Amino acid sequence: MTVTHDGEGEPALPAKLAAHPSVRAVLSRRKAGEDAGPPPVLDADWLRELCLAAGADDVAAVGLDHPDLAGEREYVLGALPGTRTLIAMAFRMNRDNCRSPARSVANQEFHQTDEQANHAARGVVQALQDAGHRAINPSVGFPQEMDRFGTDRIWMVAHKTVAVAAGLGVMGLHRNVIHPKFGSFVLLATVLVDAEVSEYGTALDYNPCIDCKLCVTACPVGAIGKDGAFDGLACTTHNYREFMSGFTDWAQTVADSADAADYRSRVPAAESASMWQSLSSPPGYKSGYCLAVCPAGEDVLGPYLEDRKEYLKTVLRPLQDKRETLYVLPGSRAQEYARRRFPHKPLKEVTGGWAPPE
Ligand code: B12
Ligand code: SF4
Questions:
Q1: Ligand 2 atom closest to the CA of 293, numbered from 1
Q2: Residues 191 and 223 placed together within one structural domain of the fold
Q3: What is the mean pLDDT of residues 48-67?
Q4: In this predicted model, what pLDDT tens digit does every residue of 219-275 receive, in sequence order?
Q5: Strand pairing category for 13-14 and 3-4
Q6: d(CA 167, CA 202)
Q7: Residues 179 and 46 in one domain
Q8: Domain identity same for 219 and 153
Q9: What CATH number did the domain enclosing 92 receive?
Q10: pLDDT by residue (tens digit) across 154-167?
């Protein structure tokens, strides 16, 4: 095999490869100094402008070696070997859309913001790639790594953990990140990149959560404790009824039904229609009320401070009063809580919460 060398520091290449038009184009670009390679350190101001122009409402970077990210490292490096920095971005949601008792309105807002955030993060990755870097944008919500479902976490990166370490906000009582200005009404995205950044964010020195406990009162299945305890299983059983966990239970009901009449006696028409909607368009959340009622954040707090009674009447109460089916595991704390606190909301016992059936 003949090997050529250009004598100017380029690696030796087999003759056939060196003669390929694409290879010659790359080598001549390098020779002309047009392809100097990426800067070793990304400029923080340049990066911020890039993310804001892509559509982010706030941005901060954090090194993968940050001690609070120890639990993320394995997953992050598995998705992009060589990752050095995580770029956290926040995207505002429209508040009254999230607060509407009409689930179709709230779900559209979640999904539109989700799409916008994925689109922006992808644009940032493209710009970083054009600058010579390796970068990826794990999804804001779904898709996730479903082959791990039931055995390991299914998300590539915990956006909340990254956003908090980068200083974009702090987790409130409801376990969502509260941005100091935009409050709870933000979705989060993370871009992984193989370079360092000239300046990293620092954690916020206060928690924007005002400890009003409205999230505790709003949750129809009692998933949020006054002390900040979070009943993840109660939340996912109800809220994710039409996502992978609830879908599994629904599919089993279909399998277990003797005939159409039996199926209809187990699943009312509206539930079947709702499941169809979630399968044919992005799946619908059943709740998210903890986020909807949260008054924290400088841009959000005004109406709550002005007239708390009115705030409760117009924001909290409509969600509490809504007649809607609540999905609970039989014998769970959530079932007892919902029965006691929300007697006007019909309860439905279901199985197949988060983990797949044995
Ligand atoms: C898994 C997940 C969920 C799970 C678990 C939530 C949780 N607190 O972890 C469920 C299905 C319950 C959920 C619900 C919602 N989620 Co969610 N979810 C995620 C996901 C994929 C990972 C979250 C994570 O990092 N968890 C681990 C650590 C960091 O969280 P943690 O709070 O410290 O730990 C909690 C869990 O381990 C949980 N837990 C404990 N036991 C159990 C058991 C089970 C079965 C489960 C599922 C969880 C669980 O309790 C711990 C808290 O004490 C992220 C997307 C992503 N890739 O990051 C979105 C994300 C956290 N979700 C988000 C949103 C908006 C929601 C909902 C509002 C959706 C809706 N419209 O209803 C609700 C809010 C419920 C709530 N109060 O948290 C946003 C939050 C944005 C923000 N401002 O912080 C994220 C970041 C998506 C995004 N890209 O913006 N979510
Ligand atoms: S609703 Fe109140 S207690 Fe709950 S997270 Fe928001 S500010 Fe904190």
A1: 1
A2: no
A3: 98
A4: 999 999 999 999 999 999 999 999 998 998 999 999 999 999 999 999 999 999 999
A5: antiparallel
A6: 5
A7: yes
A8: no
A9: 3.40.109
A10: 999 999 999 999 99
Q: Report whether residue 354 contacts ligand 1, using a CB cutoff of 6 Å.
A: yes
Instruction: Please state, in angstroms and as integers, the Cα–Cα distance from residue 152 to each residue in 111, 177, 231, 316, 354, following that order.
Output: 25, 23, 19, 35, 12
Does the pLDDT value for residue 358 go beyond 50? Answer: no
**109 located within any domain:** yes
Check pocket membership of 217 for ligand 1, CB cut-off 6 A.
no
Tell me the ligand closest to 226's alpha carbon: 2
Q: Is the pTM of this model over 0.85?
A: yes
Domain match, 183 and 265 both = no
For residue 20, is it within any domain? Answer: no
Task: Tell me the CA end-to-end span of the chain in Å, nearest whole number.
Answer: 57
Domain assignment present for 18 = no
140: Cβ below 6 Å to ligand 1?
yes
The answer to whether 180 and 209 are in contact (CB under 8 A) is no
Q: Which two tokens stand for residue 131?
A: 């600058």
